[in-house]
Design goal:
By secondary structure, this protein is mainly beta. It is built from 1 helix and 22 strands.
């Protein structure tokens, strides 16, 4: 069903995910090629939309909670696997090719391969009315404050204050919204 085109495909995907997710609000629209891992740990509010090839992953006791009127553009990855948690408030928009990854690899022991050292659990909170631009990466342990804007291409590794615009690698303060 992930590849069924047109309005029929949207209706089929909505019906399919209504049964697979822990919670799905009204009027959800899922684009072609959506992948969902551990849907029983994902809750999505009303009027949700996601473009083509999005991935929602909550495996390994992770959790994703998405508010109302959230829109994910094409190729967005929301990954809370391995004890991570991602929360998005209402009225959030996320640009294409963006990655939110709540957990991270442990790298402390130089004698062991990184892949064998496990993961650290993390949380990402995106408060209400946030715009995350295209090609952004948001790391675990970050809170993006209400009304903030994250410029395209940014790598967010620290909290973003409410109503600020940030950008760059790593993301830094650019200005307050409305100035």
């Amino acid at each position: 069903m992930s590849w069924a085109p047109g309005w029929l495909g949207v209706a089929l995907r909505r019906a399919w995910f209504q049964r697979r997710l822990r919670g799905l609000g009204a009027r959800a629209s899922f684009g072609l090629g959506l992948q969902v891992v551990s849907g029983a740990s994902i809750v999505i509010g009303d009027d949700f939309g996601c473009g083509r090839f999005c991935v929602l992953t909550a495996g390994g006791s992770g959790a994703i909670v998405i508010g109302h009127r959230v829109n994910l553009n094409a190729n967005v990855s929301v990954n809370a696997a391995v004890r991570g948690r991602i929360e998005m408030g209402d009225d959030v928009i996320v640009g294409p090719n963006t990655v939110l990854r709540a957990s991270d690899h442990v790298i402390a022991d130089r004698e062991k391969p990184i892949r064998t050292q496990g993961h650290t659990a993390g949380t990402i909170v995106v408060e209400r009315d946030v715009w995350i631009g295209a090609n952004v990466t948001v790391a675990g342990g970050v809170r993006v404050g209400e009304g903030a804007v994250v410029a395209a291409g940014a790598v967010v590794v620290a909290d973003v204050e409410p109503y600020t615009v940030v950008g760059g690698v790593p993301a830094r303060f650019i200005k307050k919204r409305g100035e």
